[in-house]
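A quick aside before the break. I want you to see a complete sequence-to-structure record at least once, exactly as it would be stored in a machine-readable document. Don't worry about memorizing anything.
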Amino acid sequence: MLSHGLQIASSPLSPPERKVMHLLLTGMTEKEIAQQLGLAASTTHQYVTGLYRKINVKSRAALTSLWLNRAA
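That is the input. The structure line, written in tokens, reads:
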């Protein structure tokens, strides 16, 4: 399912961005993602905002909705 989201992005996602996106879509919070990946919360937030920009959404709900519509 991750490959569907990669086609949505305006530019290629880096490997860390792919990991963050996957964890976002599983419902983890940014803090949980940071702990899981051994990152600072601020770094995780930068990845999340970068993902939103690349995919042209403003929230996790919009990301999930777009993802589900593309995967269907």
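Two observations worth writing down. The chain has one domain: 2-71. Residues 41-55 form the longest helix (15 residues). We'll return to this after the break.
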